[in-house]
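U., I forgot to send this yesterday:
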Amino acid sequence: MPQYKITTDLFQLPYENNISILYAPLKGFLCKVNNDFIELLANIETLNGAQLTPEIQRLVDYLIQAEIINAPPEPARQEPRSGPEISPTKLALFPTNQCNLKCRYCYAGAGEFAPKVMDWEIATSAIEYFLGQMHRQNWTTFPLEFHGGGEPFYAWHLLQRIVSFAEEQCARYGFKLEVYAATNGILNERQLEWVTAHFTSLTVSFDGLPHVQDYHRPLPNNQGSFQRVDQTLHYFDEHNFPYGIRCTVSQYNQDLLEETVNFVRQNYRTKLLFLEPVNICGAHATNTAILQPDLYKFIENFKKLEPACAASGLRLAYSGAQFEKISPNFCYVGTDDFAVTPDGFLTNCWEVTSQEHPLVETFIFGKMLPDGKIQIDQAKLDFLRRLSVHQLDYCRDCFARWHCAGDCVTRLGHQHYQGPRGGIRCETNRELIKHCLIQMLERQDFYEPVQGEDCKNRVNIPPQSL
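Result:
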């Protein structure tokens, strides 16, 4: 039996000349190493401790201390949860399928289907359900999120009523309420005043440059929306309200990303800017396909712009390279988290928001019932629970797998969700995660810890050279 053995996911990435990056994501281990160190690792199982030189012994001791070798072995495959009991970590509600914009790349076709607004009984039942979860799990914070195939704030009075009800219930039981939402930012001053008083933070969909915003995200009468959203963001800045911006990248603005990022940096105080390429998805795949950008250009622009953003305090992000966390799940798919659609169905995918979506049979797995109860299709839930990186053989030897977590399953281009990834989207994820690793080494810094479900650790050890 070998005296020394590698006991964690460990990856070697080319860096420069005879230097490599050594990365163990589950141990938060990242350093630059030379070829001699790589040879040492390659022969680690043949080493005899009694015969090691002092220098080699120092390196072996370092690897033991970092839990790279001789640590308790990690399971090769973590089995998914099973059984009827579920344990969501937040409550997400989709109040309506209606919207006050007519975005060219809308994945949900908001406003094109029969109007739906969530019944008050569905909303209160969902809150009662999650309050029961909190009591059972001894949680103290109630995370409430609004999202959907429509604009959540379009159902303004319902949303206000839901938040007020949640506040009352949390005050009754001594819970802390945190309220979040994704929004298009079309809010008047009265609404903004109420939002900043009752919400924790928002993500605002906003494409930056005035002519891009007006083209991508017009009002229903085809007039531009830039001025309205610009007013919203300045209001947030004036009131020190935290928000992030999600900017969609299409063929129309793929060559304007540097100008877009500079515009955001110069005009707004946000600390987080997501750049998200248009994807073929949902019932409007033809429209989104026409707008799809060149992802090789996206990679090049992101790598060029990210260092300057970091230096100015703006974090540039992209969902396929979630470097700030270690998680087996790209999103809520594969977990017990769900969102409640306007008509009371439970969906595991934030893009599958209605019965009209072509993937409804896969991702809608239950229904909200009265009195804080839910109804589950057990077979569907069990299938969804298996959609984590633990079960993806294709990703098993990929250094990026704990950051992209197998990527978004609706963007694979096929419906064999546990099958192959690959392609340009996969290449984009790997390139940008590697970029994050290199920048971390060169800047000698690291992100604040953010843990996802089943996280053991994250990349929080200061980079080193060995």
